[in-house]
Structures
1.
Amino acid sequence: VSQRYLHRLFAAQGWTVMGWVREQRLLRADQALRARGSRLPIEAIALAHGFGDPSTSRRAYRQRFGCSAGTRRYGVK
């Protein structure tokens, strides 16, 4: 599959390739945050799901889910 064709396929679905990848990372990070018994720090979860910078992951998470990762995990603001 050529790069151009791949971009066309994603565009037809309303995504960019990187936008789709980011969405998948955020969804999987969200699952890890909500997993019962998970003791990994929030920053470690972000790193494990492809976010290299904590501030970038915090901003992306809040933008996507409308709350902070800490609120999602602990139910506090």
2.
Amino acid sequence: MFSGIIESLGRVVGLDRQPQSLTLDIESGLTNVAEGESIALNGVCLTALAAVESGPVRFFVSAETLGCTTLGALEPGSRVNLERAVTPSTRLSGHIVQGHVDAVARYKGSTPEGEGRRVVFEVPANLRRYMVEKGSIALDGISLTLNTLGEEHDGVFDIGLMIIPHTWTHTTLGTLSDGDRVNVEVDVIAKYVEAQCRIK
């Protein structure tokens, strides 16, 4: 489990594409990574393949993960958001994030607003029922607050978020260009509530 508070900005330093899988070497800035440790990479829960005191961490990405996330678009030099799993003593500064991606959203741009930036993403319409204004969402693993929800049209809808300067400069959000895709994880509590309501 993760909190959506990005610990480190990593960089892809090695990449081996196979027909139905991908192996990534990530210069992470993390130390004492244990073999089998869960680390969220752009919001996707991956497993460290070997113990690493310092230096690149290797991850295997399966066909399933390639099919439902943006990890297949990574290239050598790509920057990535990294977060280690929380521990029982960790402050939950963001919200409960599992690292299980629900869909992919498209970046539509940003506008300055004071010291912050208002950003807009286009999200698949089937996720609308899990979102509320002032609720939580994870985009590329970053815990964010939903400020506005647009109307559904053509199978999508827009979400608006206010990004503070720290988040803009300490995550990959500040590097996005119009049309770039990001991984989306909705609030898991909303999904559990929906499941319980269906049972009743």
3.
Amino acid sequence: LMALDLEGIAVSSGSACSSGSFKPSPILQAMGANETEASSTLRISMGWGSKESDIDRFIEVWSKVYERVQGETVKQA
């Protein structure tokens, strides 16, 4: 979340009704997600004013963050 925020992309963990909470979303758990899945979920929303370029930017930043995190995971293993 913080890495995306630093890139200017606002996302949230869990469902909208659990935003601001660090506990697994009870909504996602009620939908069948286990605790790990509910704790590892990102909520990505678009608005009426969202453009295709916003989606392209998200994919670009997400790819960069994902690759960095995967590299850190491999180093720790």
4.
Amino acid sequence: KEIFEEVTKLGGKCILTKKDHKTGTDRIFEAYEELRDDSIEYVINLQGDEPMLDIEDVTNLLKKTIKKKSKISTLACQIEDKNFFVNKNIVKVTTKEELNQNNLSVASSFTREIKNTQKNIYHHIGIYIYNVSYLEKFVQLEQTQNEKSQKLEQLRLMDNNIDIDVGLAKNKPIGVDTTEDYLEIKKIMEYKN
């Protein structure tokens, strides 16, 4: 409610959704349904725990998504800290092909734990771009056991054989998954102001 009031006060538009959604994508779909604009081809789900995501990375992902006519796309970045592999708060994605700035590759898996011996492992970034027909399809699918046990909603798509394209971000954002992450972000934002 506080966020809704602040956005509205600053002249922005927002939609307050129901509290009983199982995932963020279900929540996004409710907002899309309320807008119901036939000219919308893609919906971007930028998750709130990614406040430092570079807008250029979002724009590049959207351009590649439209060009490839992807069903669903997301971002990832290189893993430089070996501790990321064992950190369950950081979601990892593996791709069929090595990522570079010019391609999108289909995701092979998303996981919270992975051995550093596989190829094409990246740090997943919390953004999804949905073609609206696949956003509609997503919310009609039942949650899978894999999705529930891993607490990763994108596994519902993969478990139903729906491809997710992954693009490489130029910048490595700091996601807010822990209190330590929050304090680091807060420090950075206070410094910038």
